[in-house]
Amino acid sequence: MEGQEHYKTAFCGFFYAFAPHRRGNMGIPKSFWKSISPFQLLVSGYLLITLGGAFLLSIPIATKSGRFENYFNALFMASSGISTTGLCVVDPGSFYTFFGQVVLMVIFQIGGIGYMTLLMFILYLFDIKTSLTVQLTARESLAGASLRVLGKFFIATVIFTLIFEMGGALLLALYWLKYYNLVHAVWYGIFHSISAFCTAGFSLFPDNLIKYRDSIVVNAVIDIVSIAGGLGFIVLYEAVIFIVNKYHNIKKLRLSIHTKLVFITTLILLMGGTFLVLITEKWDGSIDYIHRFMYSSFQVISAHTTDGFNTIDIGRMSSASLTVIMMLMFIGASPGSTGGGIKTTTFAITAKYIISLLKGKSSGVVNIYEREIPQESVNKALGIFILFIVIIAIDVTIMSMTENQDFRNILFEIISALGNTGLSCGITQQLTLIGKLLLATTMFIGRVGPVTFGYFVFGSVKNTGYHYPQEDVFVG
Asked: Can you name the residues that pair with 107 across neighbouring β-strands?
């Protein structure tokens, strides 16, 4: 216990700035915390980690050449890591040293579960109190837990992360022991398992996972770990509670609407996406139907969870298949997960809203499982959907002028970046400096979310307290 108190004292000193309400005027002034919003604090943290990570990736010890790397390339890789996208301007396996690979892995690990998760886990573990601003920031970072159970929820998040990442690493390492020595097999297992759970898609192999496309072990482990990361910690937490309650015959077995919606939407997207890719892809006659299904399902899971791994050459897929993949990348994973995209619930609510309008329900009320979704959530879903479209349109316009690439490949690259997926038709390394910086910014916006990024730019949400007189406008 004496040792624990010693470490607690050390952490209290280090994180004292996160508890400005405790003693006198020590730490960061209270005026600072009153002036900054949780959204600004959240985005600023990710921005600092990105810039710091880029510096570490650019120094000689991180590169096998032993020379300083171009900082803009390092910034692109760090942005890709913190956003768990996986787009690369260099090959991580051959370009970076072990130090560089560890730095990259730490960046996408932090990006996957969120730096606020790690911070709140440490603070809760050592019983260090935090300001309300920090708690609100932590809540926003995972889009879910109430302040009352915030600490326990972050503990559960870390536990889920360790279970899936360690389990995946062990199985992959055992498989790769057939091809590599113990050190390499273990390192490959750890790196790719964390990359899968964080839906980052970084690989230490030059052809990603194409070499292992026929391996049931690699396919199954990556798929399961990625789906777990893409479902979201909120859903995983509630699903475990549900199973435990049912095992102990506790009557309170009801899942929330959020969890039900995530499960059903995920199932529809995975089944529907696999079927569409299976029938639209131009398969080589030598590939049997079992392998066609395995390749199709892997790429659909990769696009939906935004893990970004590939077992087939994306650039050679048919236009119809690529369209399906782009739609899945656009929708992405679920809220509070390690994945990107507009999120499954946003897509479901937007779809239900459009169906409601088509049925003549002018009020735009969205009902799901005999529950009415709050208008605020409906408006946010529509806003996110529109903002994604706007960002894609702006990026396409700019990159069509700066990049000498096929329009289809440019559009695919942009959606992959904004959806934090990382799949590519093979043009990433050929982009101009403007293209790289634009995609790096797009990946970052996709990670923190366009709404959160907007709050970061324009400040905290403010209620005007008044309404102007209404006047109708003809639309449609």
From this structure: none
Contact present, 435 and 402 (Cβ < 8 Å): yes
| Number of Cα atoms under 13 Å in the Cβ half of residue 268 | 11
Angle between helical axes of 182-197 and 216-231 (0-180°, round to 10): 40
Annotated domain spans of the chain: 2-21+36-458
End-to-end CA distance of the chain: 69
Please, are residues 335 and 343 in contact by the beta-carbon 8 Å criterion? Answer: yes
Given a cut of 50, the residues of the chain with pLDDT beneath it are: 1-26, 147-149
What secondary structure does DSSP assign to 242-301, as a single string? HHHHHHTT-S--PPPHHHHHHHHHHHHHHHHHHHHHHHHS---TTS-HHHHHHHHHHHHH
Query: Cα separation of 268 and 272, whole Å?
Result: 6
CA distance 220 to 141: 29
Q: What is the pLDDT at residue 20?
A: 43
Q: Which pTM does this prediction carry?
A: 0.86
The residues near 290 (Cβ < 8 Å, ≥ 6 apart) are none
H or E segment and range at residue 367: strand 367-368
Phi, psi torsion values for 427, nearest 5 degrees: -110, 0
Question: What is the C-alpha R_g of the chain?
Answer: 23
**Residue whose C-alpha is closest to residue 265's, from 330, 198, 322, 332:** 332
What's the confidence (pLDDT) of residue 456? 72
Length of the chain: 476
Is the separation of the CB atoms in 325 and 411 below 8 Å? no
The 3-state DSSP class for residue 118 equals helix
Find out whether 233 and 187 touch, Cβ atoms under 8 Å: no
Quick one: pLDDT at residue 246? 80
d(Cα 361, Cα 227) in Å, to the nearest integer?
A: 35
Q: What is the pLDDT of residues 6-41, one digit of tens each?
A: 434 433 443 444 444 443 333 555 555 555 666 677
Q: Could you write out the DSSP letters of every residue in 202-242?
A: --SSTTTTGGGTT-HHHHHHHHHHHHHHHH-HHHHHHHHHH
The pLDDT assigned to 419 comes to 93
Query: Which DSSP helix (H) or strand (E) runs through 368?
Result: strand 367-368
